[in-house]
Amino acid sequence: FYFFIFFTNKTEQFGNLLFPAFTVPEERRGAFQSQKNTLALMADRRSAFLQVYYKLKSELLEDPSFEFTDVSRQWVDRMLDYNVPGGKLNRGLSVIDSYRLLKEGKELTENEIFLASALGWCIEWLQAYFLVLDDIMDNSHTRRGHPCWFRVPQVGLIAVNDGILLRNHICRILKNHFREKPYYVDLLDLFNEVEFQTASGQMIDLITTLEGEKDLSKYSLSQHRRIVQYKTAYYSFYLPVACALVMSGENLDNHIDVKNILVDMGIYFQVQDDYLDCFGDPETIGKIGTDIEDFKCSWLVVKALEICNEEQKKVLHNYGKLDPVNVANVKALYNELNL
């Protein structure tokens, strides 16, 4: 599905350039029209989803628990717009899609769509919180094609407090819109559980890259899976579906297989992300990859360790070094191993 969206978007963008004299055959026009209708529907869904973001943001900027000044309100307003809605929004939109599937074709009410959207935005807020702090810890430069929030002039380490604010906003949104729901406590527990799992995965990732303790012998596919399962898969793939299940009145303990499948999807996603970090075009993926320089437990390096010979393994002494020559040597080895 994601490949279809990417491909059709690129076809729309570059079609005239690639196929200037191309005419759609009569028998294929129905399929092309259906594809265009799907893209138009997706654009409408995204637009409707963004309208919920603006409503939630407006509520947060008027939160009665804090007496905003004009300056502080403008800061939070700018910080939210910079960090929350700028991604693909797949996590948030997945809540609505999952809830719709669980309703088995029944038409959703406006209130149901709003509540599912609000939960989707809670996940996007959680994502923003993680990314703002992750970029500081990784000393990253760009995110989504723009400077990382902490690198924006006058922001700096204020971004740490902004990250804490982003996390607290989730509780405010849940309180404002789900406090009277019978599953309110289940939602709070779910978000707390997933945040704990993600932070713990981040901890494993960070302590494996400590200066002075860098040891490639500690890296393996099982170690990579452990990091990715906790750091990425739970909040990116399991949480959206779990939110929809909770909203539908389901007990998550009865859907362990769902969790297992979604975790595997999350691991597959991270393997792709590891590849793009090394070989993706920064203009396309919106960030400059630094996994090699940061000595990350990436799928590429653990796979290289698994299949390379002793001579090739010596090349991996370049791993975790900042010099572009060292980085190029590692990438050359990956290519040699057909990774």
Automatic annotation (TrEMBL):
InterPro entries assigned to the protein according to its UniProt record, in alphabetical order: FPS1-like (IPR039702), Isoprenoid_synthase_dom_sf (IPR008949), Polyprenyl_synt (IPR000092), Polyprenyl_synt_CS (IPR033749)
Lineage: Eukaryota, Viridiplantae, Streptophyta, Embryophyta, Tracheophyta
Keyword Calcium: no
UniProt KW keywords: Cholesterol biosynthesis, Cholesterol metabolism, Isoprene biosynthesis, Lipid biosynthesis, Lipid metabolism, Magnesium, Metal-binding, Steroid biosynthesis, Steroid metabolism, Sterol biosynthesis, Sterol metabolism, Transferase
Segments passing through the bilayer: none
Domain of life from the UniProt record: Eukaryota
Organism: Theobroma cacao
Designated name of the protein: Farnesyl diphosphate synthase 1 isoform 2
Cofactors demanded by this protein: Mg(2+)
GO molecular function, one term: dimethylallyltranstransferase activity
GO biological process, one term: cholesterol biosynthetic process
Alphabetical list of SUPFAM superfamilies matching this protein: Terpenoid synthases (SSF48576)
Pathway given in the UniProt record: Isoprenoid biosynthesis; farnesyl diphosphate biosynthesis; farnesyl diphosphate from geranyl diphosphate and isopentenyl diphosphate: step 1/1; Isoprenoid biosynthesis; geranyl diphosphate biosynthesis; geranyl diphosphate from dimethylallyl diphosphate and isopentenyl diphosphate: step 1/1
Family assignment from sequence similarity: Belongs to the FPP/GGPP synthase family.
Function: Catalyzes the sequential condensation of isopentenyl pyrophosphate with the allylic pyrophosphates, dimethylallyl pyrophosphate, and then with the resultant geranylpyrophosphate to the ultimate product farnesyl pyrophosphate.
CDD domains attached to this UniProt entry: Trans_IPPS_HT
